[in-house]
UniProtKB/TrEMBL annotation:
Stored Pfam families: Bravo_FIGEY (PF13882), fn3 (PF00041), I-set (PF07679), ig (PF00047), Ig_3 (PF13927)
Disordered: annotated span: 344-366, 734-754
Record-level GO BP terms: axon guidance; brain development
GO cellular component: axon; plasma membrane
Keyword presence, Metal-binding: no
Recorded name of the encoding gene: CHL1
Subunit structure comment from the entry: May interact with L1CAM. May interact with ITGB1/ITGA1 heterodimer and ITGB1/ITGA2 heterodimer as well as with ANK3.
Compositional bias segments (type: Basic and acidic residues): 344-359
Gene3D superfamilies the record matches: Immunoglobulins (2.60.40.10)
Entry protein name: Neural cell adhesion molecule L1-like protein
Topological type in the membrane: Single-pass type I membrane protein
Domain Fibronectin type-III per the UniProt entry, residue ranges: 652-747, 752-845, 850-952, 953-1054
C-alpha cells in the first residue's frame, strides 16, 4: 500500500508526536500491563417505561482483568438479584425493569483487577425518578377590580426536563392569550389589565414532562373581577351609583423584568446558542411592546418576536449580536423602557472564567464543584527510574485531595514513597511498584476522579510497525517512514539505507522520538529500501520499509484573473501534469471562494463545471470571486487560482443634495454608486424643467474623473430638476433619482437670436428668418423679437417691428438689393444686448441676358473647348451660380445623314468664360449654345454656333475568326468596326508565335489597303505551332484597337483546332454563334473577362448538323402555315418598335442616358466592371469534321 505524506502535514505530525509523548504510552497487549478502564456509564436515569437499563464498565489489561462493583460505598454482588444480568468478560451488567426500581437507585463504582493492580471507575449515579406532583393546597379566590393587573403563578414541581406548561380550563380548553393576557417563559399567566369576562373559577396550570410521559395539574384557581358597587342597598333604579374603585387609565409598568432590576440588566449568552429576552408590562390601555437595537440594525434573518411581541428571540448567536437591546412598552398615557446589555462568550471563555473565579463580583460565594487544574498522568517507567505524580483541583469550598493505590487508600506508614496533598513521589522504581494510582477531589458539591497507571517494565524492543511497509511521496515533499516501537528502558533508534551501515544524518533527515524518519525535500534518488534499527539494554529489533518517489502534480488555471463584462461568457481551464503511476487516483475539482463548486451548479445550467473546465454563461456580479482548481492524487494535492472580475456599468448615483444656491448657480453633490470594478471616469449631469419642455431631460454638463460635487451654471427663469449619470469604461449607469427642484429668478435676455438670414421665393419679396432662442435662453416671461432693417446705402433710418415668431416677411422690395438687418431678444424684464448687423439680399429673378461672343476650339475628334463672354453684373438679377453649355449632333460627316437633335449639357459653376466638352462623336457636325443661371433659374440661351469634329481612329472590328487551319497556313475573317469614326483606309493584320510559358515571338505585319477586304489567308506558318492574330481598322487618323484570336496549326492528316470568341453583355439571356462549319463538334465555354484563371461559368460540347439536314429546313420554308406564322411575328415586332419609339420621344428635352455616357462616374464604372466583368464566349473545334 502507499502512504501519503506532504509538507502540509508536517505541523500536524509534529503536534501528534508531542501529544503522544505527553499522553499515556500505548503498551502492546502482548506485554504485561495494569488494568485500564476504557468505557463506563455516566449518570443514568431509569425511566419507568424503559424495559431495561445497562450500566457499563469495560477495561483492558494483561492478564485479563476481573470486575467487581460497589453501591453507595459497599460491595455489590451482581448475582444477588435475579433482575441483574452480568456480561461475560466484562464489568457491564443490565437491570431488567419489573416495575419496582427504587431499590436500584444509588451510586455505583466498578473495579477492574489483575495481578499487577486494580483500576477504579468514577461514580455512576442511577436515578430512579418519582412522578412529579403539584402539592395539594387550597387556593383562595382572587378578587380584583376591573382594569387592575393580575399574575396567576404556576410554580410547577421539579422533574426531569424538558418541562412544558399550559393554561387551560377544567374542560381542557386553552385559556385564550393575546397582547393583554399571556404566559411568561416561567409559566406564570399575566394580565396587563383585567376585564369583567376574565372572571372564572377554573384557571388550571398543567405541567408536562415528556421524558416521563407525565402531565400533572395544579388545583384550579378562581379570579373574580368586580366592576360596580352601589352606595345603598335599596335596589332602587334611581339610586346613585358610583364606582367603588374608579378605573383610571395609567402608563405601562414592567412586570418582567421587575422594577427592582432597574432600567437595565446584563444578559450573557453562549455563542451559537439562542438569545431570549422577555418584556411583560401592565397598564391601561393594554401596552404595545416594541424591540429595537441601540445603534445597529436587528439581524433580520435570525431575529423574531414571539408571545405577541413580548419575547425577542435571536438564533445562532454570534459575536456581532453583542450590544444593547431596548424594550419599549407604550400606550396612549405614556411609555416605559428597559435595556438589555447582551454579552456573547464562547464555551472556552466561560470555562476559564468559571475556573479563575469562585466568587461573584459582589463578594457573595458561588457554589462550585471541584474542577481539575492538574491531573496525574499514566506512563511507562523503567527499573530504577523515579516517579512523581501531581494532582490539583479547585472548587468552592476548597476540595479535599485523597490518594488511592489500586482502589484502596494509601497507608502512609507502609508506603515507601512520599505523600503530599497535591503530589506523590517514589524513587528507584522496581517491577513490583507497578500499580494504579487514583486521585480523588471532593467537596460538598461533588467528587471527581483521576487515574494514572504506573507501569514499571523491563522489556526488549517490540517493533509494532509491520515489516516491509511501502511508502510513497512526490518530488519536493517530505516523506515519513514509521518505526513504532515499545521498549523499556527507552530504545536508541537509527535509520540506514539499503546496503549501508551509516546512520542517516544531515539537514534533510530527522528521526523523531516515536521512531519516525522524515526525509525533507525528497528527490528521485531517495527511492529505495530503508531499515530501522531499535536497541536498548535488554535487546534489539529491526523493520524494513520501501520508499517510492513520484513526480509532483502541477496545474495552472487559464486565463489568469480574467475581466469579463456582465452578461458575457467566460471559460476557465485547468491545465495539469501528473505522474503516470498516479493516473487512477488523479482527480480535479473546482471551488469558488473556498466552497466546492458542484457540477452544473445552477438550475438553469448557466454555470457548468466539467472536470478541467468551468464555463459560465451570462456572467452576473454574483459570479465574481476566486475560482480554485484543486488537483489531488493519492500522494499530493495542489491548487491554482484565478480571480474572475466582473465588469458592469456603475450603479446609479444616490443622495443628490443642493447647496450654495445663487441666482445663476448651485452646487450639486451626490454619492457615487458601486463602480463594479471599472473606475468611474465621468459624471453626466442632466436637468429637466417643468415650464417649457416638462419631462424632457437635457444634458447640462459633464464632470471628468470621479468627483461627486459640481457647481452648476444656471439660466434664469427655470425650475430645475437635476439627475446624475455615472460613466465608466463599460458604459453609462442608470440615471439617479431626481434632486429637489430649484427655481432661478427671471432676468432680461443674455443673448440675441443667431443665424439671421434672408429667404425669398419671389423677386419682389424678402423673408427675414433667424434661429429662435431655446427655452433655457429666454430668461423670463413675455419673449419677443425686435426686428430692425434698412436698404443698404439708400435708407438711413431703421424700420422696426416687434414679433413673437422667428420670421418676418417684407413685400414690394426691389429685386436683389442688399439690406441691413438686426434682431434683438426682448422679454418682460428688458432687452438683450445690442444686436449685430447682418446683410441680406431681397428676392432674385432669372437673368435677362445671354452670354455673347460664343466660340468653339476643336482640340481633337472627341474634345472641344467652348468660350464665351460673361453677361453684365446687373443683368444677372441675383447671385450668379454659373453657366450651362448645351450641344447636339445634327449630322454625320461620313454619310451626311441627319440626326434627331438630342441635346446634352454641362454645368460650369461660378463666374467663368470657358469649359471643356468631352465625349463627342468624331467626324460629326454639332450645334452649341451657352446660358447663365442664378438661384432663381436659367437665363436665355445664346445664338447657336456650328462646329465639326475631325476624323478619329475606328473602334475594333466587330469580330475576328479563324475559318480554317492547315499545316502551314490559316484563313482569317473579320467584321467591320462598330463605329468607323471616319473613312476607312484599310486594315492592319499582325500575328506572332506564342506558347504555354508566355514567351512570344516577333510580331509580323500585313497592311491591307482595301477597306472592303474582310478575310485573308496567311501562308508559310510553322506546323503544330500556336499563333496569336490581331486585326485593327484604320482611317487617315490612324488604326484603332485590334480584335484578337489564337489558334494552333496542324500536323499532317489532322484537323486544326481553332478558337472563336466574342463579348457577351451580362444582361443577355442568349447569344448567337455564327460562321460554324456543319457536321463539326465544338466546345462552348462562358468565362468572365476579368477572371485571371479563366475558369468557366458554363461549358458544354455541341455538334453542328451535317449538310444532309439542310433539305429539312428548305421543305419547311415552302409551307403556307410557316409563311403565315413568320408574317404575324414580323407585324407584332413592328408594332412593338413603334410604341418604343413614341415613348422614347416623350421622355424629355435631354437624354439622361446620353448625359450619363458623357459624364461617367469613374468609381461606379470601376465597381461595375469588377463585379460583373464582361462575359466572353469561346468556341473551339475539338474533333475532325464528321462525314
Amino acid at each position: 500500500m502507499e502512504m501519503l505524506f506532504s509538507t502540509k502535514g508536517i505541523t500536524i505530525c509534529l503536534l501528534f508526536f508531542v501529544l503522544s509523548l505527553a499522553a499515556a504510552i500505548q503498551i502492546p497487549l502482548s506485554v504485561a500491563q495494569l488494568p485500564t478502564i476504557t468505557e463506563q456509564s455516566k449518570t443514568q436515569v431509569a425511566y419507568p417505561f424503559d424495559d431495561d437499563f445497562a450500566i457499563k464498565c469495560e477495561a483492558t489489561g494483561n492478564p485479563q482483568p476481573t470486575f467487581n462493583w460497589t453501591k453507595d460505598g459497599k460491595p455489590f454482588d451482581l448475582l444477588s438479584d435475579p433482575r441483574i444480568i452480568p456480561f461475560n468478560n466484562s464489568g457491564t451488567f443490565m437491570i431488567q425493569n419489573h416495575g419496582i426500581m427504587a431499590d436500584f437507585q444509588g451510586k455505583y463504582r466498578c473495579y477492574a483487577s489483575n495481578a499487577l493492580g486494580t483500576a477504579m471507575s468514577e461514580e455512576i449515579e442511577l436515578i430512579v425518578p418519582s412522578i412529579p406532583k403539584f402539592p395539594k393546597e387550597k387556593i383562595e379566590p382572587l378578587d380584583v377590580d376591573c382594569g387592575d393587573s393580575v399574575v396567576l403563578h404556576c410554580n410547577p414541581p421539579k422533574g426531569i426536563p424538558p418541562l412544558h406548561i399550559y393554561w387551560m380550563n377544567i374542560d381542557l380548553q386553552h385559556i385564550p392569550q393575546d397582547a393583554r393576557v399571556s404566559m411568561s417563559l416561567k409559566g406564570d399567566l399575566y394580565f396587563a389589565n383585567v376585564e369583567e369576562n376574565d372572571s372564572r373559577s377554573d384557571y388550571c396550570c398543567f405541567a408536562a414532562f415528556p421524558r416521563l410521559r407525565t402531565i400533572v395539574q395544579k388545583m384550579p384557581m378562581t379570579l373574580r373581577v368586580t366592576r360596580f358597587k352601589h352606595t345603598n342597598d335599596s335596589g332602587s333604579p334611581n339610586a346613585a351609583v358610583t364606582k367603588a374603585n374608579f378605573i383610571k387609565e395609567r402608563k405601562p409598568k414592567l412586570l418582567i423584568p421587575p422594577e427592582s432590576s432597574g432600567i437595565s440588566s446584563l444578559v450573557t449568552v453562549i455563542k451559537g446558542g439562542v438569545l431570549l429576552l422577555e418584556c411583560i408590562a401592565e397598564g391601561l390601555p393594554t401596552p404595545l411592546l416594541i424591540w429595537n437595537r441601540v445603534g445597529r440594525d436587528m439581524p433580520e434573518d435570525r431575529a423574531a418576536t414571539e408571545n405577541y411581541g413580548k419575547v425577542l428571540k435571536i438564533g445562532e448567536v454570534s459575536a456581532a449580536d453583542e450590544g444593547t437591546y431596548l424594550c419599549t412598552a407604550s400606550n396612549s398615557v405614556g411609555s416605559v423602557k428597559h435595556e438589555f446589555r447582551v454579552h456573547v462568550e464562547d464555551q472556552k471563555t466561560r470555562r476559564e472564567r468559571s475556573r479563575d473565579s469562585t466568587k461573584a463580583s459582589d463578594g457573595i460565594s458561588v457554589r462550585k464543584p471541584p474542577q481539575w487544574v492538574k491531573k496525574p498522568v499514566s506512563n511507562v517507567y523503567s527499573v530504577g527510574s523515579n516517579l512523581v505524580l501531581f494532582c490539583q483541583a479547585i472548587g468552592n469550598p476548597e476540595p479535599t485531595i485523597k490518594w488511592k493505590l489500586n482502589g484502596m487508600p494509601i497507608d502512609g506508614r507502609t508506603y515507601r514513597g512520599q505523600i503530599l496533598p497535591r503530589e506523590i513521589s517514589l524513587i528507584n522504581l522496581q517491577l513490583q511498584d507497578s500499580a494504579v494510582y487514583q486521585c480523588e477531589a471532593t467537596n460538598k458539591h461533588g467528587t471527581i476522579l483521576a487515574t494514572a497507571n504506573v507501569n514499571v517494565i523491563n522489556v526488549s524492543p517490540v517493533v509494532l510497525t509491520p515489516e516491509g511497509e511501502d511508502y510513497a511521496t512526490v518530488v519536493g515533499y517530505s516523506a515519513f517512514l514509521h518505526c513504532k516501537v515499545f521498549a523499556s528502558p527507552p530504545p536508541v533508534i537509527r535509520w540506514v539505507r539499503e546496503d549501508s551501515t551509516q546512520s542517516l544524518e544531515g539537514l534533510r533527515y530527522a528521526v523523531y522520538e516515536n521512531g519516525s524518519l522524515e526525509i525533507k525535500e525528497t528527490m528521485k534518488e531517495d527511492s529505495g529500501l530503508y531499515t530501522c534499527w531499535v536497541t536498548n539494554s535488554v535487546g534489539k529489533g529491526a523493520v524494513n520499509a520501501n520508499l517510492d518517489i513520484r513526480d509532483a502534480t502541477k496545474i495552472a488555471v487559464t486565463p489568469k484573473n480574467p475581466q469579463v463584462l456582465k452578461s458575457h461568457s467566460v471559460l476557465l481551464k485547468c491545465l495539469s501534469e501528473y505522474d503516470p503511476h498516479l493516473k487512477h487516483s488523479f482527480k480535479l475539482s473546482w471551488r469558488k471562494d473556498g466552497d466546492e463548486l458542484q457540477i452544473n451548479s445552477t438550475e438553469d445550467g448557466r454555470i457548468i463545471a466539467d472536470m478541467d473546465t468551468v464555463f459560465i454563461s451570462s456572467v452576473t456580479m454574483e459570479d465574481q470571486g476566486i475560482y480554485t482548481c484543486v488537483a489531488s492524487t493519492s500522494l499530493d494535492r495542489v491548487t491554482a487560482e484565478s480571480q474572475l472580475i466582473v465588469l458592469d456599468i456603475p450603479d446609479p448615483p444616490a443622495a443628490l443634495h443642493l447647496s450654495e444656491k445663487q441666482d445663476r448657480s448651485v452646487r450639486l453633490s451626490w454619492r457615487a454608486g458601486d463602480s463594479h470594478n471599472s473606475p468611474i471616469n465621468e459624471s453626466i449631469i442632466e436637468f429637466e424643467e417643468n415650464r417649457w419642455e416638462p419631462g424632457k431631460w437635457q444634458e447640462l454638463t459633464r464632470i471628468q474623473g470621479n468627483d461627486t460635487t459640481a457647481v452648476l451654471s444656471l439660466a434664469p427663469f427655470i425650475n430645475y430638476h437635476f439627475r446624475v449619470i455615472s460613466v465608466n469604461a463599460v458604459g453609462r449607469s442608470r440615471a439617479s433619482e431626481p434632486s429637489a427642484r430649484y427655481e432661478t429668478p427671471p432676468a432680461a435676455p443674455d443673448k440675441n437670436p443667431e443665424n439671421i438670414r434672408v429667404e425669398a421665393s419671389q423677386p419682389n419679396e424678402m423673408i427675414m428668418k433667424w434661429e429662435p432662442l431655446k427655452p433655457v435662453e429666454r430668461n423670463g416671461p413675455g419673449l419677443e423679437y425686435k426686428v430692425s432693417w434698412r436698404q443698404q446705402g439708400v435708407e438711413t433710418d431703421w424700420n422696426e417691428e416687434l414679433v413673437k415668431k422667428h420670421s418676418l416677411p417684407l413685400g414690394n422690395t426691389p429685386t436683389f438689393v442688399p439690406y441691413e438687418i438686426k434682431v434683438q431678444a426682448v422679454n418682460s424684464l428688458g432687452s438683450g444686448p445690442e444686436p449685430n448687423v447682418t446683410t441680406g439680399y431681397s428676392g432674385e429673378d432669372i437673368p435677362d441676358a445671354a452670354p455673347s461672343s460664343v466660340m468653339v476650339e476643336v482640340l481633337n475628334s472627341t474634345l472641344v473647348k467652348a468660350m464665351w463672354s460673361r453677361i453684365p453684373r446687373d443683368r444677372v438679377r441675383g447671385r450668379l451660380r454659373g453657366y450651362k453649355v448645351i450641344w447636339w449632333k445634327t449630322r454625320s460627316l461620313l454619310d451626311g445623314k441627319r440626326h434627331h437633335p438630342e441635346k446634352h449639357f454641362l454645368t460650369f459653376i461660378g463666374d467663368r468664360n470657358h469649359g471643356m466638352i468631352p465625349g463627342l462623336e468624331p467626324f460629326s457636325e454639332f450645334h452649341l449654345t451657352v446660358l447663365a443661371f442664378n438661384g432663381k433659374g436659367d437665363g436665355p440661351e445664346s445664338s447657336p454656333i456650328m462646329f465639326h469634329t475631325p476624323e478619329g481612329v475606328p473602334e475594333q472590328p466587330h469580330f475576328l475568326r479563324i475559318l480554317n487551319f492547315d499545316k502551314d497556313s490559316v484563313t482569317l475573317s473579320w467584321g467591320l468596326p462598330k463605329k468607323s469614326n471616319g473613312f476607312l483606309t484599310g486594315y492592319n493584320l499582325q500575328y506572332q508565335i506564342i506558347n504555354e510559358t508566355d514567351e512570344i515571338g516577333p510580331l509580323s505585319d500585313v497592311n491591307i489597303t482595301n477597306p472592303s477586304t474582310f478575310s485573308w489567308r496567311l501562308s508559310n506558318l510553322s506546323s503544330s505551332t500556336k499563333y496569336k492574330f490581331y486585326v485593327s481598322a484604320c482611317t487617315m487618323k490612324g488604326c484603332g484597337k485590334p480584335a484578337t484570336e489564337e489558334g494552333l496549326t496542324i500536323t499532317d492528316g489532322s484537323k486544326g483546332i481553332g478558337k472563336i470568341s466574342g463579348a457577351v453583355n451580362p444582361t443577355q439571356k442568349f447569344h448567337p454563334i455564327e460562321a460554324l462549319e456543319p457536321g463539326t463538334e465544338y466546345t462552348v465555354r462562358l468565362v468572365t473577362k476579368n477572371w485571371v484563371d479563366n475558369n468557366s461559368i458554363f461549358e458544354d460540347v455541341i455538334e453542328t448538323r451535317g449538310r444532309a439536314y439542310a433539305g429539312i429546313y428548305e421543305g419547311i420554308s415552302t409551307q403556307g402555315w410557316f409563311i403565315g406564322l413568320m408574317c404575324a411575328i414580323a407585324l407584332l415586332t413592328l408594332l412593338l418598335l413603334t410604341v418604343c419609339f413614341v415613348k422614347r420621344n416623350k421622355g424629355g428635352k435631354y437624354s439622361v442616358k446620353e448625359k450619363e455616357d458623357l459624364h461617367p462616374d469613374p468609381e461606379a464604372q470601376s465597381i461595375k466592371d469588377e463585379i460583373f466583368g464582361e462575359y466572353r464566349w469561346k468556341t473551339s473545334v475539338t474533333n475532325s469534321q464528321l462525314c
